[in-house]
Structure formats: C-alpha cells, structure tokens
Amino acid sequence: MSRVEPGENQLVRFILRDAGPLKTQRLKRVVFEGIPPKNRLEPGRASVAVNIRQNLPVILHPKGLPMNREPWKGLVWSMANGELTVRNDTPYVVRMGQEIQLLPMMASAKVPAAYVLPGASHVLTVPDAARSATSVRLYPATVYGFAVDAYDAPLATDAP
Q: Which helix (H) or strand (E) holds 30?
C-alpha cells in the first residue's frame, strides 16, 4: 500500500508467479482503491471526501502467442438434449456480452460470465422453442472491453 498525492505519479509493476511459461491467455483482476487525502482544512470546517475504487480486468498475453483480434470466432457452440454448450478450445480469453440470441427464432439465453476462458465451457438450458436453432448471435468485445459488431456463430446439433 502506498499513497500517491495529487499531482504525483506512481508506476505499478505486476509479476506473475507461475510454475512455467504461460501457454494461454489469463484473465486477472487488479483493484485500486483510493485513500482519503490528508485533511488540510481548518478545524471546525465541514468537508466531503469521496473514495474511488477501480476493479480492472487484465488479460495476460503469453510471449510468442500471436495476437488474435477476433477470438470469439474460435468458440464452439453445440446443442444436445435441450442444452446449449459453448466451449473455448483456443488459447485466448473471449470477452462478450452475457446475453446471446438463438437464431432464427431470436430466443434469448444468458451465459454465466462476460468471458469464456481458454479450455472452459458453459452449459445453458434453453427454452423448448429454441431447440431447433441453427446459429447463435453473440455480442463480442475486444480485449480492452470495447463492444464490436454482433457475430453469428454456427451451431452444431451433435453432442459436444
């Protein structure tokens, strides 16, 4: 913990301690929380203090892994027994909106997180009317969290 006074800067360096070199991207969180400024007011005067807290997602990118500007295209979507499965077999973290649509009936479903980590999968129960869907519309985001155009991914109807 340290205090950075107004007008001052501080460089922060993060070191990942891991058994070996990274092979896939990792999603971590960095939290910065403000410390109230030193009270420089005269005794007996009223003041209002506001603390600011930032909770920032950070994606660690392994050295040597090529950049992928559209990692959501590597997600595998499948439907089996009324359950929708999304699987990420790529080494990239995929950020996206939690709301997805099953096409062509435009039925909505919600993934449990705004990202799919490398090697992870999510299973969602879908409404009966959406079991004949042929594709999934998702709303991806860049690694910096900026929304991009919707993407329609093909939907396999075999067991994952």
A: strand 26-33
